């Protein structure tokens, strides 16, 4: 090869050298050898040089999100067809079990949020659309999905308290009869996952949670062409609080105005739940629920007797607790009345100066038994009779209702076609512990948590906005008195014809009772059909 060709080749890459050599041979008429060498060049480029160039380009450009990790366990969306048999008709519907993605400012995928959508196949574009979530914080939507809203219901045996052999059946009281449903698991619950544990913590807070769920709702609404549908939010416990916060976030950050919220056994004001143990107002607002529970345990429930307890609680009881300690006959009469209403022996009522919030679990159901804050009408054998205060797991939360988790995982796999090797998280205690209430974690910050201002503002700026609050009489965790107090202190002009509270026999999850579930669904149908 001439020296000039040698110099020319020395300044080129390996591929250029081989390509140039092929060209030289072609000029000399050696086409076969030239073609052979060019083929070698192509292979050399593909196997060696191209990956190097790609690596250099990757160093200069943002790296794509790596598929894998926890997200690799989440399958594609599954769409199935079903029919719901109600008392009036057979309702065909389509179910989508899938995920929606949330991205951070860098463009990287931050989380995948699992949802289940049940949509009537013959639905008009203006059919109501309800987004549903539970509370906790840290609870998945399986409770409300299989306990109340969905087309399938989880039965817990003849007495509705056997979680060892639960079974699914058609739900004749499903809200799908009058609204399409989208049930959402917030990040960290169910099958909703963040890209990493650190990413997950960015979702665990009042504001962050509301904004992320508002984004999920906006994405679903746009993706499915439901902008014109009246939109409702429904949530249980913290989920009721969440519903108000998400409604505000939808308005402020997504430009979506909701038609109403349904708050089930809600927490509205944190000061009542986590305030001082000797707060006279909180004690007075809880007392009617304890009275209702005692009536339930004696099979003597009567709404009129509960109303009597409510009047006593907000008059003589409240005034007495707010004043100096009672003495003599006055104290005996008051404490005897509280004892008769709650079943707590008078000596314990007297020892607590009438503040029974800390002693009713251990003292109101008789020796050797404890009651559940989730349903104080329900008692169980005391596993720790030697302790002065209750140490038990809760008979409701830690008992039969745990069955919702495994039941939903089986339902999704067997009937909805969503098959994953990822476990379904019904309750995530880590989420609860990490939760940021108002700039921090812990009791002090959650005491100030409030959704009352959100309710006021939404009622004020959205004339069509309405609120339905539902409680079980014997719920001692979030007693109906707490919500009633908040609603009673809203401006009358905002409330008239737009805010209602409904009470049913049972506790925090009163819908586990067939009769209460049916009554609530009928009331909800009327709420949805009322003019906005």
Automatic annotation (TrEMBL):
Cited InterPro entries: AB_hydrolase_fold (IPR029058), Peptidase_S10 (IPR001563), Ser_caboxypep_ser_AS (IPR018202)
Keywords assigned by UniProt, alphabetized: Carboxypeptidase, Hydrolase, Protease
Molecular functions per Gene Ontology: carboxypeptidase activity
Superkingdom assignment: Bacteria
Signal peptide boundaries: none
Protein name (record): Carboxypeptidase C (Cathepsin A)
């Amino acid at each position: 090869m001439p020296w000039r060709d040698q110099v020319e080749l020395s300044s080129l890459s390996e591929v250029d050298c081989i390509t140039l050599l092929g060209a030289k041979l072609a000029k000399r008429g050696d086409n076969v050898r030239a073609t052979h060498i060019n083929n070698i060049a192509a292979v050399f480029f593909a196997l060696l040089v191209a990956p190097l160039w790609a690596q250099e380009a990757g160093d200069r450009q943002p790296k794509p999100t790596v598929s894998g990790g926890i997200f690799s366990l989440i399958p594609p969306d599954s769409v199935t067809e079903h029919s719901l048999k109600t008392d009036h008709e057979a309702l065909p519907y389509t179910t989508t079990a899938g995920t929606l993605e949330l991205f951070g400012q860098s463009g990287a995928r931050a989380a995948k949020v699992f949802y289940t959508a049940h949509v009537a196949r013959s639905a008009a574009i203006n059919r109501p659309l309800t987004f549903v979530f539970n509370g906790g914080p840290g609870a998945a939507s399986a409770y409300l999905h299989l306990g109340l809203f969905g087309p399938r219901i989880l039965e817990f045996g003849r007495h509705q308290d056997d979680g060892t052999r639960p079974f699914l059946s058609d739900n004749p009281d499903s809200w799908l009869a009058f609204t399409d449903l989208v049930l959402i698991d917030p990040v960290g619950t169910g099958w909703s996952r963040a890209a990493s544990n650190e990413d997950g913590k960015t979702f665990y807070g009042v504001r962050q949670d509301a904004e992320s769920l508002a984004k999920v709702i906006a994405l679903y609404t746009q993706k499915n062409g439901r902008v014109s549908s009246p939109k409702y939010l429904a949530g249980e416990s913290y989920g009721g609080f969440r519903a108000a916060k998400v409604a505000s976030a939808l308005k402020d950050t997504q430009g979506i105005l909701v038609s109403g919220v349904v708050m089930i056994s809600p927490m509205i004001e944190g000061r009542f739940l986590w305030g001082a143990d000797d707060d006279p107002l909180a004690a007075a607002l809880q007392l009617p629920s304890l009275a209702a529970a005692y009536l339930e345990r004696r099979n003597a429930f009567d709404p009129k007797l509960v109303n009597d307890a409510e009047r006593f609680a907000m008059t003589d009881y409240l005034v007495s607790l707010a004043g100096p300690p009672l003495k003599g006959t006055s104290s005996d009469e008051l404490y005897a009345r509280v004892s008769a209403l709650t079943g707590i022996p008078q000596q314990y009522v007297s020892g607590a100066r009438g503040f029974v919030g800390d002693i009713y679990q251990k003292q109101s159901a008789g020796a050797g038994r404890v009651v559940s804050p989730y349903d104080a009408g329900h008692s169980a054998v005391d596993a720790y009779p030697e302790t002065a205060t209750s140490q038990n797991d809760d008979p409701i939360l830690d008992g039969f209702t745990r069955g919702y988790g495994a039941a939903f995982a089986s339902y999704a796999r067997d009937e909805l076609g969503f098959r994953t090797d990822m476990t379904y998280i019904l309750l995530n205690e880590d989420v609860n512990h990490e939760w940021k209430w108002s700039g921090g974690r812990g009791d002090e910050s959650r005491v100030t948590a409030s959704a009352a201002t959100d309710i006021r503002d939404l009622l004020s700026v959205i004339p069509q906005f309405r609120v339905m609050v539902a409680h079980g009489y014997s719920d001692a965790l979030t007693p109906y008195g707490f919500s009633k107090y908040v609603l009673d202190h809203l401006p009358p002009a905002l409330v008239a014809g737009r805010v209602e509270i409904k009470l049913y026999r049972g506790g925090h999850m009163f819908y586990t009772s067939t009769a209460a579930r049916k009554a609530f669904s009928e009331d909800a149908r009327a709420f949805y059909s009322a003019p906005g």
